[in-house]
Design goal:
- By secondary structure, this protein is mainly alpha-helical.
- It is about 45% helix and about 5% strand.
- The chain has 2 domains: about 35 residues, no CATH class; about 80 residues, Orthogonal Bundle (NinB fold), CATH 1.10.3790.10.
- It has a two-stranded antiparallel sheet with strand order 1-2.
- Helix 2 packs parallel to helix 4 and helix 3 crosses helix 4.
- It is elongated and about 60 Å long.
């Protein structure tokens, strides 16, 4: 995505670094520069959703036995992964009802999404759910 003539730069070689540096020098005063790790790929995203769908079809349920749909399964997996990785996952009151807050997977780096998928595989193994097409 280009912002007013400034394309995103993937720092994979010296020329890309030089172009990025030149763009910084040309940027108007007050602009911000953000350097971040690569975000997740479309293939990773597709695999994540296939894994969740397969876990649900395999009978993914809460500890109390309630079967989860794909949306609830994603929330459970992401929240469980966050807790396992020492991140805050809060339940807050909103309009007088409890609401679970969690990170959106759209903000995950490639490494984080890979770690989440490892977590999903581990949880499915614990529950006897086979992930056939996604591993």
């Amino acid at each position: 995505m280009s912002v007013q003539g400034f394309p995103p730069f993937r720092l994979v070689h010296d020329q890309a670094r030089q172009l990025a540096t030149a763009a910084v020098w040309r940027a108007p005063d007050g602009w911000h520069v953000v350097i971040k790790p690569p975000s997740r790929s479309l293939d990773q995203n597709a695999r994540l959703h296939a894994m969740i769908a397969e876990a649900v079809k395999g009978g993914l349920a809460t500890d109390a036995g309630r079967r989860l749909d794909e949306e609830d399964a994603k929330t459970a997996f992401v929240t469980g992964w966050m807790i396992d990785n020492g991140m805050a996952s809060d339940i807050v009151a909103f309009n007088g009802r409890p609401v679970q807050l969690r990170r959106s997977t759209t903000t995950f780096s490639k490494e984080e999404l890979g770690s989440l998928m490892d977590f999903i595989e581990t949880e499915c193994v614990k529950r006897g759910i086979q992930l056939r097409e996604t591993t």
